[in-house]
Amino acid sequence: MIEINHLYKSFGDKEVLKDISATFENGKTNLIIGQSGSGKTVLVKNLVGLLDPTSGEVLYDGRNFVLMDKNEKVAMRREMGMIFQSAALFDSLNVLENVMFPLDMFSSMNYRERMKRAQECLARVNLIDAEKKFPDEISGGMQKRVAIARAIALNPKYLFCDEPNSGLDPKTSLVIDELLHGITHEFNITTIINTHDMNSVMGIGEKIIYIYEGKKEWEGKSSDIMMSTNEKLTDFVFASDLLKKMKQNEMEKMRRNNS
User: Fold this and answer.
1) In what order do the strands lie in the sheet with 190-194?
2) Whose CA is closest to 197, among 158, 236, 226, 250?
3) 160 forms bridges with which residues in the sheet?
């Protein structure tokens, strides 16, 4: 579990994160949502150590990441997997070599063991037949699946995903969501996903934190969103007329069932 307590982050005179406290639970897909500029990306960067908070705590199973020295943070990051918005694969390496990269860097396995582990991860994302291909020879959705395989190669306790469905069509996005959700439960990972995708929110959002102007405005489950009376959350999630109609229909159904 990851806990953040009274987290603040400022850049000069501009306060971007304002007294955020939250927990991200093991074995669940924890989603951070919010408008562009709300502070959610800055929050994730504070969680993984790309930025240092102005004040507050970031606890990994009780270990305060903020107070760790450089070597301790390096060791801590070996427990983290990361999936970037662009997939961030190495163009000069084939699919198998991309997945092997963190194993080459951080594991004590021999070459045969590293290759076997990478192939296991590719099989988990249904890409074992693509192991000899290079990134520019596969689709954007396949690249994201390679990125997932690479992120889980070191058996991370914590998995961070930055807009994993960015640039993907709805069908492929669903595949990525199902993979992340399945892997989270299968390996009991604390998964944190920074997303704008409302399909992801409603589909796999087991714990959702909504950031508004640097503050935690709301938290709950996807099933709670339909009944939420928080106007800021409602305006954000149900921005389209179709989603607004879905919420209205759900509210009307609840009223009928309760009458």
Assistant:
1) 80-83, 158-162, 190-194, 28-33, 207-212, 215-220
2) 236
3) 82, 192
Neighbours of 49 (CB within 10 A): 17
Q: Could you give the angle at which helices 111-124 and 140-151 cross, rounded to 10 degrees?
A: 130
Query: pLDDT tens for residues 45-85?
Result: 999 999 999 999 999 999 999 999 999 998 998 899 998 88
How far apart CA 151 and CA 166 sit, in angstroms, is 17
Q: Which CATH number fits domain 26-50+75-258: 3.40.50.300, 3.40.1280.10, 3.40.50.1220, 3.30.1120.10?
A: 3.40.50.300
Give the chain's length: 259
pTM beyond 0.90: the answer is no
Per 3-state DSSP, what percentage of the chain is helix, strand, and coil (rounded to 5)? 45, 25, 30
Buried b (16+ CB within 10 A) or exposed e, 59-76: ebeeeebbebeeeeeeeb
Which tens digits make up the pLDDT trace of 202-232?
889 999 999 999 999 999 988 888 888 888 9
